[in-house]
């Protein structure tokens, strides 16, 4: 078990805020984790489990315990001619796993290339991009309950995956399960999903295989999304809102060009990026925080922003979209502190 005091979280939040935590604890294995879950001092403090911090906004220093998993490893559990089952430690870097699968010829998560973060958080968030959600490749999630101290294996259905959501994010369960491993089922005969946006344009004239698809996704992401190693950001700050058909019908009169994606017979999804752009907020700043010019759903740390600059800018965006469209944007980013 690694324990640090007054520890900088600069490397553990992709907004690159130089905040500190009173305690930083990293468990190396399940035995360490069980020890932590029986520690009275730990439970007497505020605590929060993080991954790479690619979806977190620290509003200031954290007066408690930040917990991080150190459980790594990628192990083949089973394979046949069609599929491979992989058990992956929660602290593996997500994109390293994608690269590993692509290099081995295993399909299912290639459209999720270059998403920042770790494997455990990928399941909590049900990360998604370019027509793929990780839920489609997850067979099991192994987690310890903070309430019972027991390990539980969740089958895919028990994870209640939906758009950017899972059982582990439900308000009743939030923060109460520490994921140790995720079991993936990958396809040795990949079925490509190339319908989203301009993926096909990037692939035109090329052979379609896992490597060319991964490279196309990486190229597309790089044109729109800032690299967190250079410019602090947490990807999409808000989720794309769902609105009822009646609401959509009334907005369509004023905005006939409004992009929309049917979810079912009652609900449509509207791109939050479009709503924010319509409010004239591209490039808008508060302190050191700014709305990204290429993808206004992303807030960037342009110049030594504080967590509060980012939160104030997010609030201005929410208010503007609410006033103009009567739509309440929900942050995808978790606020801490
Ligand atoms: N749009 C604009 N103006 C812009 C950019 C986009 O109006 O400047 C509109 C366009 O109508 C465009 C639509 O927004 O067609 C969708 O844009 P984009 O394809 O960039 O995707 P997104 O809906 O904004 C979602 C995910 C991203 C993921 C992309 C690609 C959410 C919250 N975000 O963004 O995920 O990479 O699709 O699949 O669902 C993340 O979660 O951090 C993330 C980056």
Tell me what you see in this structure:
The chain contains nine helices and 20 strands. The chain is α+β, with helices and mostly antiparallel strands. The chain has three domains: 2-69, Uridine Diphospho-n-acetylenolpyruvylglucosamine Reductase, domain 2 (2-Layer Sandwich), CATH 3.30.43; 74-224, Uridine Diphospho-n-acetylenolpyruvylglucosamine Reductase, domain 3 (2-Layer Sandwich), CATH 3.30.465; 232-336, UDP-N-acetylenolpyruvoylglucosamine reductase, C-terminal domain (Uridine Diphospho-n-acetylenolpyruvylglucosamine Reductase, domain 1, Alpha-Beta Complex). A five-stranded antiparallel beta sheet has the order 6-7-12-10-11, with helices on both faces. Strands 1-2-5-3 form a four-stranded mixed beta sheet. The chain is globular, with a radius of gyration of 20 Å.
Strand arrangement in the largest pleated sheet:
6-7-12-10-11
State the distance separating the first and last CA atoms: 25 Å
How large is the count of helical segments?
Answer: 9
State the domain count: 3
User: Helix share of residues?
Assistant: 25-40%
List keywords for this structure.
four-stranded mixed beta sheet; five-stranded antiparallel beta sheet; Uridine Diphospho-n-acetylenolpyruvylglucosamine Reductase, domain 1; Uridine Diphospho-n-acetylenolpyruvylglucosamine Reductase, domain 3; 337 residues; alpha+beta; binds uridine-diphosphate-2(N-acetylglucosaminyl) butyric acid; 26% helix; Uridine Diphospho-n-acetylenolpyruvylglucosamine Reductase, domain 2
């Amino acid at each position: 078990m690694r324990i640090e005091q007054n520890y900088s979280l600069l490397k553990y939040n992709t907004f690159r805020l130089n905040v500190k935590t009173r305690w930083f604890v990293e468990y190396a294995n399940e035995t360490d984790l069980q020890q932590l879950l029986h520690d009275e001092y730990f439970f007497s403090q505020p605590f929060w489990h993080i991954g790479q911090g690619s979806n977190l906004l620290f509003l200031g220093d954290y007066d408690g315990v930040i917990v991080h998993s150190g459980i790594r490893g990628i192990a083949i559990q089973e394979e046949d001619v069609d599929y491979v089952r992989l058990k992956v430690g929660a602290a593996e870097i997500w994109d390293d796993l994608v690269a590993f699968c692509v290099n081995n010829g295993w399909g299912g998560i290639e459209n999720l290339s270059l998403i920042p973060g770790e494997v455990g958080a990928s399941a909590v968030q049900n990360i998604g991009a370019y027509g793929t959600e990780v839920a489609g490749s997850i067979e099991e999630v192994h987690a310890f309950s903070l309430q019972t101290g027991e390990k539980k294996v969740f089958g895919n259905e028990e994870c209640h995956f939906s758009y950017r959501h899972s059982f582990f994010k439900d308000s009743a369960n939030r923060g109460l399960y520490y994921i140790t491993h995720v079991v993936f089922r990958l396809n040795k005969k990949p079925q490509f999903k190339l319908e989203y946006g301009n993926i096909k344009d990037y692939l035109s004239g090329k052979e379609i295989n896992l490597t060319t698809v991964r490279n196309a996704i990486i190229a597309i992401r790089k044109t729109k999304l800032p690299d967190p190693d250079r410019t602090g950001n947490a990807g999409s700050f808000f989720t794309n809102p769902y609105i009822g058909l009646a609401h959509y019908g009334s907005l369509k009169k004023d905005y006939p060009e409004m992009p929309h994606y049917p979810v079912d017979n009652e609900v449509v999804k509207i791109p939050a990026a479009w709503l924010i752009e319509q409010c004239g907020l591209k490039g808008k700043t508060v302190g050191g925080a700014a709305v990204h010019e290429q993808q206004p759903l992303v807030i960037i740390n342009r110049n030594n922003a504080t967590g509060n600059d980012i939160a104030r800018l997010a609030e201005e965006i929410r208010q503007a979209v609410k006033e103009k469209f009567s739509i309440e944007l929900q942050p995808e980013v978790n606020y801490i502190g």
